[in-house]
Amino acid sequence: MTFSDFNFDPQLLEGLQSMGYVKPTPIQSQAIPLILDHKDLIACAQTGTGKTASYLLPVLQHISISEKKYTKALILAPTRELAQQIDQQVEGLAYFAGISSIAVYGGGDGMIYEQQRRAMMDGVDIVIATPGRLIAHLASGAIKLSHVQYLVLDEADRMLDMGFYEDIIKIISNLPKERQTLLFSATMPPKIRTLANTILKDPEQINIAISQPASGISQQVYMVYDNQKIKLISSILKEGDYKSVLIFCSRKETVKDLNRTLRKEGIKSEAFHSDLEQEQRETVLRAFKSRSLPVIIGTDVLSRGIDVEGISLVINFDVPPDPEDYIHRIGRTARAETTGTAITFVNEKDQRRFSFIENLIGREIPRISLPAELGEGPAYNPAVKRPSGSGNRRNGNKKKVWVKRNKPQQNNPK
User: Fold this and answer.
1) 296 in the Ramachandran plot: left (φ > 0), alpha (ψ -120 to 50) or beta?
2) Which residue in 83, 182, 216, 412 could disulfide with 334, CB within 3.0 to 4.6 Å?
3) What CATH superfamily classification does 3-208 receive?
4) Is the pTM of this model over 0.70?
């Protein structure tokens, strides 16, 4: 199958070709025909499977053959970074089709808010927004959603984790009842099912590449005490030939402290967290993408909010709080059939949590010995191992709701 098989508008195909799209990924080949056929959809797909294009392309096709007078599509995303990335992809795919879009998000100064307000009042085909900022624009009367025909919720599980449920319901109350609704989520816990039952009509369902790291990732583990972590990470970064590194910490304060320490060690790094102004965030990401900044340290918001190819190393300074978060963190490397390394530091307190990760991915991750100068780390002896077949969420008792496992083709990773 090629993208020509979908009978897209020639101008849309031209945009596809200019961006290097050749062959649809599994999520694209399954979702695009359903969306073109005006079906509501629940799609469970991880970052890196091509999910964004799987909903953008059919929505752009619908808009390209309709009257461009009102806002026709609304895409909700959990973070400003993801909203911006979706907007950039719309710009590339729709470049020759003359379809307009605007990313609407919080942060920044009053000028950004005013630019967003003017764009929406002047009329824009597609609005990509974080829920909180869109609520503010709705309250001000800057945007009317009465003509929206397509609603997309991207990374719906993350939006609910961030407490956006009420905002989402309020936004939907401003939309026409007759619309096409598409819900994309990396995980499918019961709360997502509840939301889907509330806002979708007889949806089709797709499950792609659930809970399995890419085969090109070399996963490694160090058993460490907390007082060994700084020396170990400094050794890894100084001795390894890594051009692009992401370091994940579970708390914002740890991100800041680790960044200060690494900079004192002579390692060029930057912290990425919610206290930064929007302009500062964009500056850090631009430097990282251009390879002028080799190391970024962030929390789990970064794991879904960054879309950079060629990341060679991901380090989990802390074991992530949820096994699914581990998949998203290490999924930043080895994208588009490349290879990469993912290293996790496990202290004595996090060993039980780490055993849940190994249970989720179905195999033991190789243990790497500490450098001799650091001494011995703690022995691996989790207090309670999760039994085979148990759930994979924080409370340890929720069952998976998906059954299909397809290895994604990652030629179109965006």
Assistant:
1) beta
2) 216
3) P-loop containing nucleotide triphosphate hydrolases (3.40.50.300)
4) no
